[in-house]
Every structure is written in C-alpha cells, then in structure tokens.
Specification:
The protein has 147 residues and is of the alpha/beta class. The termini are far apart.
Length: 147
C-alpha cells in the first residue's frame, strides 16, 4: 500500500498564540526560532505552500542582544534606499538598537521568512513590542522559550 502525503487545508489549521520574551536573547537565535513558529515548521501538518503557522508576540525587543561580528554594534549596518540620487540612509546596529529596536527585530524575522505573498501573510502574524506590555492579552498567549 502506498502512503499519501497529507496537505494542510486552510479550514483544518488550528492557530495558537505564543509570547516570547526577548530580554537578553541573541537576535539571530530569536529570529530563527520565531520564523519557524510563524511558518509552522514546528507542526506535523507543515506544508511549504500553505500558511500553517501560529501567532507570535515578541516583548522586550529593546533589550535584545547582538553577538558575533555585530557584537560591537558599530560593524553591522542597516541600509535603506529612497530611489533618489543620494537617497542612501545607513544606520549602525547600535543606533537601531537604541532608537528603532522594533524595526531591528522585525527585519531579522523577515529575513528568515519566505519572500512574496506567503511570507507577508506570515509576517502579519508577528507582533513586536519594545517594552514588556502587549495588547494581545485577550488571546491568552502561551510563553515560548527561546533556547
């Protein structure tokens, strides 16, 4: 007898809510594990062409740590280009961590997700907050440990 591959159908997907405390967690490790949950790779019904992932709330984004080459916070740069001549904006990791910690975590998680409509749908299930308070208390999120 031949085995059949199960394909997740949108009506069969059950989504959970997780809250992650980013305090003193390395940014890359946080981003990879959050991306796995957003994609649904932690579930047995994972399907690459379907969004089967869960919702993730990241709190304390302002106190995330950088390691490796970026540990100095002045070696890694974040770039934005407006499209106009001279429209390149460069910010160091230290500046991003001090002034834009939510954007820094968001860029790290987005870098781990697939690009295109599917990845954008996955990213919409990620909520990032600079402090310890979040607005999704009514969903009763479960704590997710980052190893």
């Amino acid at each position: 007898m031949q085995r059949q591959t199960t394909i997740a159908k949108p009506l069969e997907i059950k989504r959970a809510w997780y809250v992650v405390d980013a305090k003193d967690v390395i940014l890359g490790r946080l981003a990879t594990q959050v991306a796995m949950v957003l994609m649904g790779k932690n579930k047995p019904i994972y399907t690459p062409n379907e969004d089967v992932g869960d919702y993730v709330i990241i709190v304390n984004a302002g106190s995330v740590k950088l390691s490796g080459k970026e540990g100095g916070e002045h070696k890694k740069n974040y770039y934005n280009v407006s499209g106009y001549n001279g429209g390149l904006r460069t910010r160091t990791a230290g500046t991003m961590k001090r002034e834009f910690p939510v954007e820094m975590v968001q860029r790290a998680v987005w870098g781990m997700l697939p690009k295109g409509p599917l990845g954008r749908a996955m990213m919409k299930k990620c909520f990032i907050y600079e402090g310890a308070e979040h607005e999704q208390a009514a969903q009763q999120p479960v704590a997710l440990e980052i190893k």
